[in-house]
Design goal:
Layout: H1 2-21, E1 25-30, H2 34-46, E2 52-56, H3 58-65, E3 76-84, H4 87-96, E4 106-113, E5 120-125, H5 133-148
Antiparallel strand pairs: 1-5, 2-3, 3-4, 4-5
Helix pairs in contact: 2-5
Length: 151
């Protein structure tokens, strides 16, 4: 019963966190270990033929700088992001609307909060719906699903 209650609280917390981020953020949750999820994101990107351009460790940076900025509380047990771009997909998107350069590179993130350990949120910021951008949203949705499922 305690496990069920803890899971319900974690899901509610994650739903509220996603809503707080905005309607343009798509997330899924996983109960896999954070390191496995992060590895799953990288694998989901690389196994599609893309190269991770940058792997950021935002959780580590926030921990490292907490005293410098007089932080009020610990936020994440872990938090990372991965950036990548696709020459094929990006070209189609930008040929349809040259201003869509604003959405490249694509970013996939994962985090586990201090308040809800054991629940890892994986997500991305959706591009506006329509045209070639839909293919990017589909691609990013597949990547986060694969990472959550343990790729």
């Amino acid at each position: 019963m305690k496990t069920l209650l803890a899971t319900a609280v974690a899901v509610l917390f994650m739903a509220n966190a996603a809503n707080a981020a905005g309607d343009d953020v798509t997330t899924v949750t996983s109960d896999a270990a954070f390191a496995d999820v992060a590895s799953g994101i990288e694998n989901a990107i690389v196994n599609r033929g893309y190269k991770v351009d940058y792997h950021g460790f935002i959780g580590d940076m926030l921990k490292r700088t907490a005293t410098d900025v007089e932080a009020g509380k610990a936020l994440y047990k872990d938090a990372e992001f991965f950036t990548f771009c696709s020459a094929v997909v990006s070209r189609k998107v930008m040929e349809a609307d040259i201003a869509d350069i604003a959405y490249c590179p694509y970013v996939v993130f994962a985090y586990e909060t201090e308040e809800a350990p054991g629940a890892v949120t994986i997500g991305f910021r959706r591009l506006p719906d329509g045209g070639e951008r839909d293919a990017v949203n589909t691609l990013l949705s597949e990547i986060i699903k694969d990472a959550a499922d343990g790729f």
